[in-house]
Structure formats: C-alpha cells, structure tokens
Amino acid sequence: MQNLRDSLDGIFREMFGHAPELHCFAPGRVNLIGEHTDYNGGYVLPCAIHMGIQCAAARRSDNLLRFYSANFPEAGVIECRADAPVKGGHWADYAKGVIQAFAQAGYTLECGADLAFQGNLPDGAGLSSSAALEVLTGTVLRELYGFAVTSQQVALLGQTAEHEFIGVNCGIMDQFASAMGRRHHAILLDSGTLSHDYLPIDGDAASIVIINSGVKHSLASSAYNERRRQCEEALAALSAQKKIPALCALTLAEFDDLRSCIPDEICARRARHAVYENARTLRAAQALRAGDLSAFGVCMNDSHMSLRDDYEVSCPELDFLAETAWGLDGVYGARMTGGGFGGCTVNLVRRDAAEAFVVAMKARYRQFCGREAEAYVVEISDGAGRI
What we know:
This protein is an alpha+beta fold.
C-alpha cells in the first residue's frame, strides 16, 4: 500500500502542481455467500479485501472540482463545479454522484478540491471497484471537509449515488463491506435492518482465492435491473396471499407452499433463488462460527448452482471455473461472486493447497478457452479510512 501511496503522491503533484493534504483508501470486497439477497431483504456474508483504491486530495480556494484517475489516464483531468456535478458517462460519475448525495443530505462542499485516484482492483471483475470508489469519495469528503458522518452513513450515501446518479438499483452490500470491513473477519449483514456481526476467518486454515475469468460485465447495461424487477413481481404476487416486506422474510417451507401463486415461472425461479440463498447464507454463517469449513464449502457450491440455474446470472466461463475447482484437492467450496455475467469466482481453499490450486486452475482455464485467468490470494482487510 505504501508503494501505491508514493506513486499516487507523485501523480497528484504532476497533474495538479501542488501537494495533497491527505490520502485515503477504500477496499474492494468479495462476497463469500449471499448473492442477490441484499435487495431482497436478506443476509449477505462479504469481506473487505486488501486490494482497493487510494485517493490523494486537497481543497482548492475556488468552487472547482478536478478529478484524475491513473487507471483511466486517457480521460485526462475531469472538471466540474462543486455545487453542480453533471453526469458525463465516465468513471468520475461515481465520485460526482457521491458529492451530489452528500449535498442532498445537507453536507455541502464549502470549496472545490483536487482528487487523484489509483487502484489495483480489476475493472469489471465483480470485486466492487465502483462501490470502493463511492465509499472512498465519501471517506475523502468526510476527512477533507470535516463532515460528521459515520462509516455506515458513507456506505448509504454511496448506495444513494448508485441509485440516483448512476442508475443502478443496487443493494447495500458492496458499499457496506467496503466501508465497514474488519481485518480477518467476514460480515454477516442483514440487509433489511443493517444489523451485522463480524465472524472470524482462520487465515492459517484456509485461503480465499479469487479467480478472474477475464469476462467483463457492466451492471448498468446487464440484466441486473431486470432480475430485480422480476423479484419485485414475485413479491407482489406472494404479498397478495401473505403480507411480507421482502422475499427473504419467507422461510423455505412458506415459499414452497406459496410458490404456485407466482404466475410467471421465471419470476418464481428468481424468487426461489433469493429465499433459498438467504437460508444458505445463515447455514454458512453457522458453519463458520463452528469452524466447519467443509459445511461452509457445501453452501458455496449450492449457491453457485442456484445462481446458474434459478437466477441465471452465470456464464460458461464462471461455470467452468467453479465446477473445475470442486474437483481439486483442498477446495472446500467455490462459486461465482458479484453481480454475474462475468467476473470472478471465490474459492475457499485449504491454505497448504492454495499454491497448487492456482497453478492447476490457470492451466485448465487456458485449455478451456485460450484465455489467461488472473488469480488473487486475498487478505481480509479493514474498511475505508485515512492512511
């Protein structure tokens, strides 16, 4: 992280001609289990990872905001007024959206700022680079202007930016994990109430290995919003029979009894995934508390099959990676992670088998599709903050 900070400090001076006032970092996240449950009122189990985005920032004497990303240098320096951020169809929209969300919440910038960003999260891999950028921007605003906002509020304002400025009707998980992560712990989050618990993960017993399929996705242009609409249709049909606040409020038995009330079979399968995934997440959390990594892995595998068959957000590359991992030595469980339609799998692997696992997965994926798969053995990190 220090090397990234030194590099960013030099970039900031080169682009803006003066030194930054502060540096902040926000991590990406990987979701161990609980996919597409967060906007259905259910539980998720993510953790923040050591890969993420840094920002160097300094206030200005005028009302101008200037943004630069070392990851998108072709965009150059992007400018806008601090009191009137305008959507521009580029990476800085995520930062602009957070600034607008802060202003709507009563946190108005007293002056402009220069902000330079640099990260090591692969774009489009499903590790929440967009949420990390939102949380990072909110953290920088808090530290730079002295706003009295908590980390949880930063997460919620990041979600507001995603909904209202970007146009993706996402759940809260990604922003929450980036803002509220804790080193060596996963977060069991009730997305309906935001109550949460930190569950320790024994890094000496198991490694979390992320395999990047290299298939990029964009939630804004994918079927993400369609899946959410289908869940809402299913909820409306079920609510005509039983008043429920969200799909994940149903037990498995209740859903099975009421499933026939959903007239559209596709919507019924979407709802089935949400309800069953919620139950799987709670079983997985119980297994983690008991230190039963094998039982946790079974839940991961079942999650992937449900995402593949009921929710239909996987793809051939992700299916190959998950199914290949299931047959390798030392693998407790493997599943696609993130919004879907590409991105990564998350694998829980016995620590002493992790190196051989990475070698085998890369070789087999190359044989399968001729594409190189990147692999990351990640450390579980703290959430966003000043560095």
